[in-house]
Structures are given as structure tokens and as C-alpha cells.
Amino acid sequence: MSIEQLHLHNLRCFQQERFNFDAKRNFICADNGKGKTSLLEAIYLLSCGHSFRTRETPPLIHHGSSSCTLYARLANGHQISLQKSLQKENVIKVNEAPCLRTSELAYYLPCQIYYQDIFAILDAGPATRRSLLDWGVFHVEHSYHQHLKEYRHLLKNRNALLKQKKAKAEFAPWNHSMDLLAEQLDQQRSSYIEKLNAVVQSLLYELVDFNCTIVYEKGWDRRNEGIPFAEQLEQDFGRDLLKGFTHSGIQQADLKFLVEGEILAKKALSRGQQKMLLLATKIAQTLCLDKTCVHLFDDIFAEVDDRHTEKLMDYISRIDGQVFISLLPNSASYIRDGQRIDL
Q1: Residue 17 parent element (H or E)
Q2: Tens digits of per-residue pLDDT, 89-99?
């Protein structure tokens, strides 16, 4: 899974550019504002159809243009292209055939981003941590994405019934279907977190001098009393009807990062230690896959001391997959074997 060639047309600061990449290591060197992050953004766009910086189209398009186009040729011969327009629908193609679901892109070009907002995993709400969780399970359990879509559809309809103050009997079929899916999705998430924890522990042992455990909270039965989801829906019905939405379920799941098994990482660790933990977690996610992954590292040196930066770079140099690292010119000493790209 690697990109041989990338073409950009009217994407942010790039009017017309073509890049050829090394199959293993690529170091993107430039001062701030020259397009380092935008180049990583282009690769990420081709892997999932949206940016890690914005969900809006206008910021992506070069000033004065009405659309931007991206094209990548992969080492295995596949081709991916994407066009975003101010007036028209997005166009995504794989091997020149229309791609109707952006989730399909992840199978051709699995991509992990290590961006400067990585602290949001600890600082923001549960939705950010659920995104981290869903990324991992999606790539490991191939039925997960479809089951999650089905659950969200059922949840939307159940919430609509709650807002309409429907009689309790009308919720029975929705509750039954949601229960079956929730239990299956919870099992997949639980199994994944158990596997991920083992890999994270191994990485932390190599990179830092502290230990951390990721604790999965499924979104119901918060006291771990063994309450099935169907029973939880029954218990919550009065409150759900009053507020007009479903309080419990996999949509309320969360992750806790606990140092020494009991202290929240956000409280126990320095900012630099937090960053090392989160980088280790996201790298560990890629090691749980059954295929290689494209790694996009942006601004990974900020808030990390020299000793841990050296350890991190040494580890990254051994990653089995294509790697892109953005660097300021004064950080070029960290460049290992690979291709240097100056913007």
C-alpha cells in the first residue's frame, strides 16, 4: 500500500504539481506556509474523501478556481482520483470507475494521520475518541462499517419516535433490532481494544518510561452490572421519552486512558508525554491491521524533547509501510534513509 505518483491541480497553494514518492520514507521540508500540511492533506483526501483540517470545500480550492483535482497512482497499479467543486457534486473514481462510497477508498489506501490536533483525543469529548475507535475496528472487522450504519439508521428513527411521543409498544421492533446490532458492535469493539492495548503496552515500553491502559466504556451498563442493552433501553424509556433522544447505546461509548491503571493520562502526564502516548496509540492501531498502511506525520516534534524525538524517529524508520514526515528546514537532521522533498 504505497503511492508512486501524486498529481495536484488547484488544491490550496498547489496550482499544478506532480510528485514522485519513495516507497518507504518521504521527508517534506519547507518553512511554514509553504504547503507541507497541504501535501499530507492531499494524500489523506484520497484515502477517505475528506480532509483532516476541514469538512468544507471552499478552503481546499486554490483562490480564483472553481474546483480542485487530485490523482494518485499506487504501487500495486491501482489509480484513485478525486475532484471537489464549488458548484458540482464531488467526483471520486477508482481505476477510472465511479466510487459511490468514500469508505471504499480506505481499502485501497489505508492511511493514518498524526496531526497537530492529536491532543483532542484526550482534551475533546467522547466523539473524538469514538472516531479513533471506529477507525481501528473498521479496518480490522470488515462487517463493522455496515453494522454501524444500520445501527445509526435505527437510532435516528427511534429518536424520531421519541420526539413524537409515541406509545411504548411502538418501540419494540426498533429496540429489538438495535439490541442485536449493539451487542455485536460492542463485542467487536471490546475485542479490538483488548488487542490494541497489548500493542500499545509494547510500544510504550520501547518509547517512554510510563505505562498506560486504554479502558473501553460501551455506552450503557455504566456500573458494569451485566445489564443487557435491551434491558437498559427499558430502564431508560421514561427519560428518553421526556428528553426526545436515546441516552444509552454504542453512540455513547468512550475510551479512558489511565496511567498506572487509575489516573487519567490528561492529569498524570506532561504535554510531551501525552503526545508520545497518543502517537504510540495511533501507530499501534496500524500494527493491528492485516496490511501495511500509509503514515502521515505532521508537526510531530512540537512539545517532544530531543531524547524522545530520537526514539520516535528511530522507531518510525523501522515502520513497515510508506511514511511521510513534514519537517522545518532546521529539523532536517532527523532525516533518515529516504527521499527528501523540498517545497
Answers
A1: strand 14-20
A2: 999 999 999 99
